[in-house]
Every structure is written in C-alpha cells, then in structure tokens.
Design brief:
The chain is an alpha/beta fold and 257 residues long. It has two domains: 1-85 and 174-257, 3-Layer(aba) Sandwich (Rossmann fold); 93-169, no CATH class. Helix content is 34%, strand content 24%. It has ten helices and ten strands. Strand 4 (63-68) and strand 5 (71-72) form a beta hairpin. The radius of gyration is 18 Å and the shape is globular.
C-alpha cells in the first residue's frame, strides 16, 4: 500500500560522505513527498550517485541522518533498506544477458519470497518459483514488455533493457523507486516511452527519485528539482524556478543545450 500523496516520505538531514580528503556529499538536506517525481541533478562529480548509495545503504554515511517513512535507515544494511520499500536501478545496465527477460525480472522479486531466489529458481520451492515468475510477468506487462518474456535479456536494445531493469526493481514492490540516469544512451522515441512509463507509475502512487543528465527529459517530467554542486545543495524548487536561478545557470544549465 502506497503512502498518502503529499505525505513526508524521504528526509535527508545534513548527510555527509568523504573519500579521504574529498568531500563527495557535504551536509546535504532535502525532503521528498510521497507520489512525486523528484529530480537530483548537477554536473559530473556533484555527488548525485553518492547520495543514491547513501540512501540505499551501499555506502555508510559519515554524518547526518536519512529517514524513510519516519524511520531512520542510515546505518542499515542494503537488504534491510530494500525490504522497507526502496528499490533502485543503476547507471549502467546490469542484466544477466544469457538469461531470459522473465528470469532477470524474477531475480528482483526475491524480497517477496520466503525461501530466497536461488532455491526458488532451482525448484526447491515450486510454489514460490511460480509466484516469483508470475510477479515478474506482471511487472513486465506493467512496462509494456510482455512480448519479450522469453527473449534473452542481452538481445534487447538498450531502451528495452532499461525497462527490464525498472521491471526488476518494481518486482520488489517498492514505495520509492531510485533511477540512476535511466535515459542515458536512449533514442528520442525511447526517452518518450520512458517518460510516459514514469508518469504512469506516478499516477499509480509510486514515488520516484531520479538522477539524470538530460535536461530536456528532466524538465518535462519531474515535479521538483534538487541541484547539487560539489556535494552541496545549490538550489531546490519547481523546474521553471530552478531554470531561472542564476547560480544554477552559472554552474550547470548554462552549458547545456
């Protein structure tokens, strides 16, 4: 069950991450509300992917707090954060190319299972395997890839591979979906299809946190933006407001076609 639209979902308070002498995230604070698409943008090295890794527990924070649904999650293991309703995709497609599209997505449904994906996929638990595959098929229909269920994942074009990754993330039944540059390398038509999917997911109550470099894609999609520069928040607000912010124009948007 998704939280009420507009309610507080994700709270980041003075999050910090250092790599030796490099400050990747410097006391960054922002909030996210349920049912919105929030864009996290900024130049290369601004700290966007690092922030994703802090939220999902891939990296430990060096300071600050991160709360999800009113519960602190900084310090939890990635699997425990995922079980609370956060799923993500990665900047580079990470599918098992020789496995079918359906099997790849079923790997993401293991958080719903009792016995674990490996045993289920090895037919140690036939009932659970059937449930995992049925859930995977449902999510593939959700992203309009039902006709590709049994195709090898590696045979699909990049745009469809990214949709497979989103379906795999959705199979974990998340409340919050984190997408790391989902439009990277896609053709115009593929970007349009991706944007339509994300709007549809938002309409279903899904909350989406998006890192993306394609400004045209972002500006036409997100509800709000948080702009980072050198690990700090440079601006936050509606897309139209952020586009006009002189600091943002000077640091980033001014150099983008």
């Amino acid at each position: 069950m998704q939280p009420s639209p507009g309610s507080s979902l994700l709270e980041v308070k003075k999050a910090a991450k250092r790599f030796g002498g490099l400050v990747a995230v410097n006391e960054l604070s922002f909030d996210m509300r349920a049912g919105e698409i929030l864009g996290l943008i900024g130049p290369n090295g601004a700290g966007k992917s690092t922030m994703f890794n802090l939220i999902t527990g891939v990296l430990p924070a060096d300071g600050g707090e991160i709360a999800f649904g009113g519960e602190r999650i900084d310090g939890l293991a990635p699997k425990d954060i995922a079980r609370r309703g956060i799923a993500r995709t990665f900047q580079h497609v990470n599918l098992v190319g020789g496995m079918s599209v359906l099997e790849n997505v079923a790997l993401g449904a293991h958080l719903r299972g009792r016995r674990g994906t490996l045993r289920a996929m090895l037919r140690a638990e036939r009932d659970e395997e059937a449930q995992l595959l049925a859930e995977a098929a449902r999510q593939l229909e959700r992203v309009a890839l039902s006709e590709q269920l049994h195709a090898p994942a590696g045979s699909l074009p990049l745009g469809q591979q990214r949709l497979v990754e989103i379906a795999r993330a959705l199979s974990a039944d998340p409340t919050l979906l984190l997408l790391d540059e989902p439009a990277a390398g896609l053709r115009y038509v593929e970007k349009q299809a991706l944007a339509a999917l994300l709007r549809r997911l938002r309409g279903e109550g899904m909350s989406i946190l998006l890192v993306e470099h394609d400004m045209e894609f972002v500006m036409g999609l997100v509800d709000r933006l948080v702009v980072l520069d050198f690990g700090e928040k440079l601006a936050e607000g509606l897309p139209a407001e952020v586009q006009k912010n002189p600091a943002v124009v000077a640091a980033y948007l001014g150099g983008v076609e």
